[in-house]
Design goal:
The structure is a single chain. It contains 19 helices and nine strands. It is an alpha/beta fold and 445 residues long. Strands 5-6-4-7-8-3-9 form a seven-stranded parallel β-sheet, sandwiched between helices.
Length: 445
Amino acid sequence: MAYIARFNQNLIDHLIGVAEKMRSLTDNDIYRETIGILHDIGKYSDAFQKHVRSNNFENKPDHSSAGAQWILSLLCDHAKKIGDGEIGRIAKLIARMISHCIVGHHSGLLNGISVGEGTSLEYRLIKSVEPYLENIQPEISERINFLVNLLMSEENFDYICRWIDSDGNISGRDAYSLQFAIRMLFSALVDADRLDSEQASNPDQWKTRISVKTDTFPVLLKKLEEHLERFPSNGAVNKVRKEVSEQCRQAASNNPGFFDLTVPTGGGKTFASLRFALHHAINYGMSRVIYVMPYTTIIDQNADEFRKVLDPDNKSLNVLEHHSNMEPERETPESELLADNWASPIVVTTSVQFFESLYAAKPGRCRRLHAIRHAVIILDEAQSVPVRYLKAVTWALEELVTNYNCSVVFCTATQPLLDSKRLDAGAPDNHRIGVTNIRPIITDP
């Protein structure tokens, strides 16, 4: 019997295809491959195969709980053979990380604490599922067993134990960092799953997606530098703009981290910040520049300015504008596709879209999170972040800078209130609201 994922795609091809597509979306190969292969393993059940071959789109069998239950069983069995209770606890933690991604890839991330029926991870780990194990193809079983050995290796335990304190607990910043890692894996799975499904089920749309032209950062930087060279240098205002731009270029060689770009209105911070971002991204192997702005009117204006310089002939999609109030004439079929996962080198978006991507539970919104890795993030009008959201914002940004090769630029006309020195008065790290180690780009404002 040929096991299929959908009417025109073999199941084994889909499982391997998703695992492969996750390769460029996450930095952890062991978890990538394990999650990719296991996410639809429940589709090997006879019940699902009967369903997928019918025209009945109702009463779809649960196919996502199976992979979560199987990895938990495999890791716990492996730990029992070793006979160490602490190893068993770590094995369960690893299984839960993977399980969160698998069971939520259609419905969204579930509650990881309570045991409410249908709404919690715990319920999905114990619920009855359709038999499937006997149908799994040998090459899949062999690969999963190989991956289980890697997950139970000393190297992976060292990776996991960075979140566990000396008392065996996970709390504070460590707990936050762990859930963020799960979200990153979840985001990569959702995107890879949808891309692989699109490739098989909607080849015309897939062809449109992969045919979109974008330029590399060196090409974009060349366009920007040529544009800046044409700026007039006479007059006091133009001299200030030129000096601001030059200091941004020089500061781009600094190590990744937090930066402050405080420039008075009219000081040319839009293109100066872009100059910093492109130079910095090239210097440190980053793959995206994300402009985050509080108001859609500012987004429209800045996106248009960027396009004039970086997409002058409208033959590429180097600048992606993404917010909820897009006018129809500003969207194209290509831009709508790339907005799914922010697959453009420069993304201009709202604060709402950006921070929802960091914290959303629904697959569609969380899908873009992995695109924020390896990015220069420019927060324009950073002082506009509501006070009640400051901790959520700054903790997420520090996580991105610390663990995901990001740099963040607080770009303002007035000094932002996000510096820990101003906000926290020496508060311990787990209670800190502000950001530490913010470096000024303009040394002599």
